[in-house]
């Protein structure tokens, strides 16, 4: 119920994770259909980039204004920080404060004067402004950092790189907010360089007990995790997509015209393959570089046919090997019989 600076930066990280989730799923998937020339009707979704900008913008972001308050000379308090927020963010559609002179919130008794509220992607969160300035200031003394850096323990030494005498900086140390922002930026870069997989966890009840399902709580999480938009995009789109070359390589054994070798373009081979298997036309689409399959059942059918074909090929290989082995043994015995017979006739 009481949220301060710690919860604020945690929610900021959640916003960035939600943003990259949107970028890599909803936005990227719909853009891929357009790139591949697939007929597609755009599905609208909420992009939380506007909330991330409210927090991390270098000029008008909340973290930037908090750093400015912490570093500027003169009397600095949490109230002056809130006043600055009210001046800069008053018109922002996701920022709410009773002191912002905005008529929408002047009579909002659920919002105390010493608080501000942000409408996050997962709902509105109210933050107590008390303690923001003190918690944002990094009060770790330089001599303590230097002492920790001189420790023999490698982990402790790694946790205090600013204590390295070669990197001593007489400037004021960076604030906690700016350090956290830099860490989040590094995390986002690492995620974008990888191929992440997502597991969305739904909490069924607040009691952490088994066999209790709170429908309202679950619906709230599904709505604000963006799962509804994701499901809509998935259902309207294609469940599976693959480049023509690996697709042909994997399933070419299912068609006599493509097995064992296909001499033409990979797309033409995939077209011949799908026509031979008589897959309904509404179940797949040909993109510029990929084959798109709409229903998972079609993919399961292909995998079942491939599995059966592999078993048939294994049986064929086994049959040919056994025949070769038996014939080799027969020819060897035949040659032995001829040699024995010739020697026997010589001495008979």
Automatic annotation (TrEMBL):
It holds the Pfam family Myosin_head. GO terms for cellular component: brush border; cytoplasm; microvillus; myosin complex; plasma membrane. InterPro entries: Kinesin_motor_dom_sf, Myosin_head_motor_dom-like, P-loop_NTPase. The keyword Nucleotide-binding applies. The keyword Nucleotide-binding applies. One of its GO terms (molecular function) is microfilament motor activity. Residues 184-206 are annotated as: Actin-binding. One of its GO terms (biological process) is endocytosis. Residues 1-307 form the Myosin motor domain. It comes from the Eukaryota. Keywords: Actin-binding, ATP-binding, Calmodulin-binding, Motor protein, Myosin, Nucleotide-binding, Repeat. Belongs to the TRAFAC class myosin-kinesin ATPase superfamily. Myosin family. This is MYO1B protein.
